[in-house]
Design goal:
Elements lengths: L1 H13 L14 E4 L6 E4 L10 E5 L15 H6 L8 H12 L4 E3 L1 H4 L5 H8 L2 H7 L2 E4 L15 H4 L4 E6 L6 E7 L18 H6 L11 H7 L3 E5 L4 E5 L2 E4 L20 H12 L9 H9 L8 E2 L2 E2 L3 H4 L2 E3 L27 E3 L4 E2 L2 E6 L16 E5 L2 E9 L10 E6 L2 E7 L15 E11 L2 E10 L13 E6 L9
Parallel strand pairs: 3-4, 3-5, 5-8
Antiparallel strand pairs: 1-2, 1-4, 6-7, 8-9, 9-10, 11-12, 13-14, 15-21, 16-17, 18-19, 18-21, 19-20, 21-22, 22-23
C-alpha cells in the first residue's frame, strides 16, 4: 500500500490531465470509513471540499451477505457492523484509510437494494460515480466479496516465478530471497485502458481478471481517471498520464478501438456496444443501464434513442445478433426496449454497415421510462424512416436449410433466393410465417442508388396489426444482400 499511496500522491500533485472538475452527479450516499466505525452518510450533508471518495469496482459473483435495504438503512446510517462486512469490503476499507481518504462508495451498501426507485435514481449517476471518484479500486483478482483484496503473497506468485536466495555477508547465512518472473511482451492483465485492447484480446489474456467478463464493469474500466488494480499476483496503477505496476512501468503502446482518454463520439459507440455485449450480465433488463455511464460522456447536443444515437441512427440500426448457431437470442423482459434497438435481445451484438446511408429519419419519439435518461424507454417510442424498398416473397425453410432443429424461412425476390435460411432465433418477436401478409426489405445503405448492401427486413402485419398492438410495421430481422432496381 505504500507504493499505491505514492502513485496516488504523485498523480494528485503533478498530473494536470487527471485533475478533472466534477462531471455529473455524485452518489446520494457514501460510506464514512475515517473513524473507528463505518457508517453511511448523505452526500448533501458533506461540504464540497471534503467530498473526495473512492469507488469500488468488483464482481458480485453470487450472494452478498451484507447489503443496505429499506429495513437496514437507518441502522447503517448509524453504524455498519465491522464483523458483518465480507472480507473484500474490509480489505477495501483498510486500503482507503491507508490512502488517507475518508469516503468510500460500494454499490451494495450505498444503493438501497430492493428499491426500484432508489436503483433508478442512483443508476443514472453511474457516470458521475466513476468519473468523480478520486480513485477507483478494481478488485480484479477476486470473483466475489468473499475473496480478499490482498492476494499477492509468495505462495500465489510461486506459480509463475522463480526464487533465488542471496547469501549474507559471511556467504553462509541466508540474506534475502529474490523472486523473478518472465517479462512477457503482452503483460497488461487488462488494465492497459490507456490503450484498451479489443474485447477478443481481453478474453485471451489469462491475467485480465474477473472484472473483464462482466458487462457492468465495462464502463467501470473506461470512465475513471485513476484506477488502482488489485490482481491475483500484484498491484497496478493506471491514470490518464501513466500505467505502472509493482515490477515495472507498463508502457502505453499499441493501438485500440476504444480510448478512454478522449471525449466520446457516436462513431465509437458501435465498438463500445460490441465489447460490452460480449460480457456476462445477471439481469438482461440492465443492458441499457450497464452502458448508460458511457452514454453520459457523449456531447449534450447528441440525442439518445434507446441505445442508439440520432446523428448516426442509420449506421447504428445496422446491428445483428452475434451469437453462435447453437445459441438462442431471446427478447428481454422486465422493461420496454423497442425491437429496433440492439438492447431488445439477449447476447452479443455485431454491427455491419457498408457504403453511404440512404434511409432518412422522418420522425421519432423516445422518452425514458425511468429517472435514468439512458435506461429503458416508454412503450410508445418509435422511429419513422424513409427508405428505398423492394417487395419480396417468403417461404418456409427445412431444418437442414436453416442449420437448426427449428424451422426457418427464406426470402425470395424475383425468383432469386436472398441470403441463406434464417432461424426463428433471429426474429425479435415470437411469430410464425403464416400470419405475415406482406414482407418488404427497406434499404438502409448503398454504394449507389440502385445497389444495396445492408437491408432491414420489415414485416408489415396487415390484418394482424391490431393483435400486435396496432403497429403498421415491425422490424424483425436483417438481411445483407445485393438487390438491384429498388424503388422508393
Amino acid at each position: 500500500m505504500k507504493l499505491a499511496s505514492k502513485w496516488l500522491s504523485i498523480c494528485l500533485k503533478k498530473h494536470k490531465r487527471c485533475a478533472r472538475p466534477v462531471i455529473g452527479a455524485i452518489p446520494s450516499r457514501l460510506l464514512d470509513v475515517s473513524a473507528g466505525r463505518v457508517r453511511l452518510v448523505e452526500t448533501d450533508q458533506i461540504s464540497g471540499v471534503d467530498r473526495r471518495f473512492v469507488a469500488l469496482s468488483w464482481c458480485w459473483g453470487g450472494k452478498v451477505p451484507l447489503k443496505t435495504t429499506a429495513e437496514t438503512l437507518k441502522a447503517h446510517m448509524d453504524s455498519v457492523p465491522w464483523e458483518s462486512l465480507p472480507p473484500l469490503f474490509q480489505d477495501v476499507i483498510y486500503a482507503v484509510r491507508t490512502l488517507g481518504l475518508k469516503y468510500l462508495w460500494i454499490d451494495a451498501l450505498c444503493i438501497i437494494q430492493g428499491s426500484t426507485e432508489d436503483w433508478e435514481k442512483e443508476a443514472a449517476k453511474m457516470q458521475g460515480v466513476y468519473q468523480n471518484a478520486t480513485v477507483t479500486i478494481a478488485a480484479d483478482g477476486t470473483q466475489n466479496c468473499l475473496g480478499r483484496l490482498f492476494q499477492h503473497d509468495h505462495k500465489r506468485l510461486a506459480n509463475r516465478t522463480w526464487s533465488f536466495d542471496l547469501l549474507g555477508p559471511e556467504k553462509q547465512d541466508k540474506g534475502a530471497t529474490v523472486f523473478v518472473r518472465l517479462l512477457r511482451e503482452k503483460d497488461s492483465r487488462g488494465w492497459h485502458r490507456a490503450q484498451l485492447p479489443d474485447a477478443d484480446e481481453l478474453y485471451k489474456d489469462e491475467d485480465s481478471g474477473f472484472l473483464t467478463s462482466r458487462s457492468w464493469c465495462f464502463q467501470e474500466q473506461v470512465l475513471p481517471p485513476r484506477t488502482l488494480h488489485f490482481a491475483s499476483t500484484e498491484v497496478a496503477w493506471e491514470c490518464l498520464e501513466g500505467t505502472y505496476c509493482e515490477c515495472r512501468v507498463l508502457p502505453e503502446k499499441g493501438s485500440s478501438r476504444i480510448s478512454s482518454k478522449t471525449d466520446f463520439d457516436p462513431d465509437q459507440w458501435m465498438v463500445m456496444v460490441e465489447e460490452m455485449t460480449l460480457r456476462d450480465i445477471t439481469y438482461q433488463a440492465d443492458r441499457l443501464p450497464a452502458i448508460g455511464g458511457l452514454a453520459g460522456r457523449f456531447p449534450d447536443h447528441e440525442t439518445y434513442l434507446a441505445g442508439l444515437w440520432k446523428s448516426k441512427l442509420i449506421q447504428h440500426l445496422a446491428w445483428k445478433w452475434g451469437g453462435s448457431h447453437d445459441e438462442t437470442a431471446e427478447r428481454i423482459s422486465g422493461c420496454h426496449v423497442p425491437t429496433w434497438s440492439w438492447a431488445s435481445l439477449t447476447g452479443p451484438v455485431r454491427f455491419k454497415f457498408e457504403g453511404l446511408p440512404t434511409a432518412k429519419l422522418l420522425d421519432f419519439r423516445c422518452k425514458p421510462a425511468t429517472k435514468n435518461p439512458f435506461g429503458p424507454v416508454q412503450e410508445d417510442s418509435f422511429i419513422e424512416l424513409k427508405a428505398w424498398a423492394v417487395d419480396v416473397g417468403i417461404q418456409n425453410a427445412s431444418a437442414e436449410e436453416s442449420m437448426s432443429a427449428d424451422r426457418g424461412f427464406i426470402l425470395d425476390y424475383e425468383e432469386k433466393r436472398l441470403c441463406s435460411a434464417w432461424n426463428f432465433n433471429d426474429w425479435d418477436i415470437g411469430t410464425d410465417v403464416e400470419i405475415l401478409d406482406e414482407v418488404r426489405l427497406a434499404l438502409e445503405s448503398s454504394l449507389s442508388q440502385n445497389e444495396s448492401r445492408a437491408l432491414f427486413v420489415v414485416i408489415e402485419l396487415g390484418s394482424k396489426a391490431v393483435e400486435y398492438g396496432g403497429s403498421t410495421g415491425l422490424l424483425l430481422a436483417r438481411a445483407y444482400a445485393d438487390i438491384d432496381h429498388a424503388t422508393s
